[in-house]
Every structure is written in C-alpha cells, then in structure tokens.
Amino acid sequence: MKKYLALTTGIFMLVSAAAQDNTPKKKEGKPVRVFNSGKTINARTPEVTGKGKMDFNVTHNFGDLAGSNGGLKRFFGLDNAADVRIGFHIGIGEHTELVFARDKGASLVQQNYEIGIKQQLMQQMENDPSRPLSIAVYFNNVISAVKANSFPGQDNSFKNLGDRTSNVLQLILAKKIGNLSVQLNPTYLTRGHAISYDQKNLFALGAAIKLPLVANRLNLVVDYFKIFRNQASRDSFKLNDNIRFYDPLGIGFEILTSGHIFRLNFTNATEILENRFIPRTVTSWGKGQFRWGFTISRKFTLWR
C-alpha cells in the first residue's frame, strides 16, 4: 500500500509544481483547440475544462450489438448496461483540471471511484513554430469498493486496500493539421492486485484522430490502443480460462450543439476506465462483440 501512496503523492506533487507557471507571459498567435472535448471514445485528449468551469459528463456502454450475446433477442445490446461512468471535471486553473468520477464496472472489479488530475503542459498555437503541439499528462487513482471475493485467484480477491487500487499515468501528444486532428497516448498502468498469471503492470500505446464531416456540427472520431501484454500471460489465460485479449478500437460520431457535446460510440471495449479496458478487453469486433454507447458532456461555470 505504501508504494501506491508514494506514487500517487509523487505524481500529484510533480504535476502541481508544473501547474504553477507553465505558460509564457506573452502568447503569440491564437491557441488551437485540437479536440472538442476531454475524450474521444476511449482516449483522453489534451483539452482541459478551463478555470472556474466544470464539465459534467455521463458515459454509457451497452451490451454486445451482435454475436452470441447480442442481436434482436437482447435488442442489440440495449437490454444490458455494461458500464456507466458519471464524471465531474473541474478546472482549478487555465491548464489544470481535477477529475472525480464513479464507474459501475463491467467485470468482477466494480463500484469504482476515480480521482485524477490532468495538466496541460503546452497548447498548440497558430503561426508559432515553438509550440507546434498540444501536450498534457493525466494521472488517476481508482479504488474498487466491491465486496472482496472469498475465492482466491479472482480479479476481486482483495486482501487489503492496496489490492483495490490501480493507477494510470498517460502522456497525451496532439496536433491539428488542417482539419485533421491526431494524437498519441503512451499509457502506463499499475495495479495492486492481479491473479498469478496476469501482469500487474502494463504499457499501452493509444492513438486517435478526429475528422470533421459537417463543419462545426458533426465529427468522426476514431481511437485505438495497442496493449503490450507478454506472450506467457496470453497463453496462460487461453489455457486456464479460454480467454483471449484484443486491442480496444473505438469509432464514434461527435455531435456539437450550443450547450452540449453528444457522442455516439461503437467499441469492443466493454469497460470505460483505462484501468479496466487496458487489462480486460476480451471482446472482438470480428465476432460481433462490439457495443454502442454514448457520452453526453455539459459545461457549467462554477466561479468567475
């Protein structure tokens, strides 16, 4: 437990120190908003809420649209609520936001509470070669409050608070090129508990794009995460549990209105949090095991 507390404290201190003064006194050109919201589908973007504002968003993933667990008998997944996340993203500075969220969870690790911080380190500027990218870092700590499983060797066979904890550290690099927005998300995940043939620590490389379809109204967004799990772990899961892992792929349509951002998502990732979909995406687009979901985002002003 001590190592997770030390890691959490260290990251928050590092990001807080960077937040003190991370922009030059004089800006040249105009800031570029690479993406419209803090996430595409599964990938976080470098965009932050803004000082004194709160972004309230709800993300909902349904069950399989097709395949053996989908189709008309389950109304193409709408009969099942696979995962739900309710989040509050509060801008405590122009380039810093705090995140508080409750996530249902879609597997044995449920009732998840997330606290996180996103720090925008650089914002892309028009006609300024010294600032060609938007760069941000995101760190979270997630604790599962679900009752511990009395059977050993399960994902939720927790023995202490440290076993219930997981952390994600993500670097976000994004750039707008004409009308096309692109980004990379190198991501490191560490967990307090994993079954014997699983990995406690995993690295993933995410990528995302946004392409306008109708100016200022409709965008196509796509994201993908390559999960670097070792072959021994993959073989053990296949032998012991008949489980095969897949890389999360999301495709969505972002609809912009005067007050809300609505996104219709399609993804093979069942769970919403990086802490869960990175180690536990076991459904495949090729087998029809993808689902639709939605995200609704609404900003409020808390103080001026």
What this model shows, in words?
With 304 residues, the protein is mainly β. The protein is built from three helices and twelve strands. The protein has a twelve-stranded antiparallel β-barrel. It has one domain (2-19, 30-301): Porin. The chain is globular, with a radius of gyration of 19 Å. The model is unreliable at 1-27 (pLDDT under 50).
| CATH-defined topology | Porin
Instruction: Specify the CATH architecture.
Output: Beta Barrel
The first-level CATH class name? Mainly Beta
Subunit organisation of the chains: single chain
Name of the CATH superfamily: monomeric porin ompg
What percent of the residues sit in helical stretches (DSSP H or I)?
10-25%
N to C succession of SSEs: HEEEEEEEEEHEEHE
What topology, given as strand order, has the largest sheet? 1-2-3-4-5-6-7-8-9-10-11-12
Alpha-carbon distance between the two ends: 39 Å
Indicate the structural class. mainly beta
Using only C-alpha atoms, the radius of gyration works out to 19 Å
Strand content: 35-45%
User: Tell me, what's the shape?
Assistant: globular
Number of helices: 3
Overall number of structural domains:
1
Low-confidence stretches: 1-27
**Mean pLDDT over all positions:** 88
Sheet having the most strands: 12 strands, antiparallel, barrel
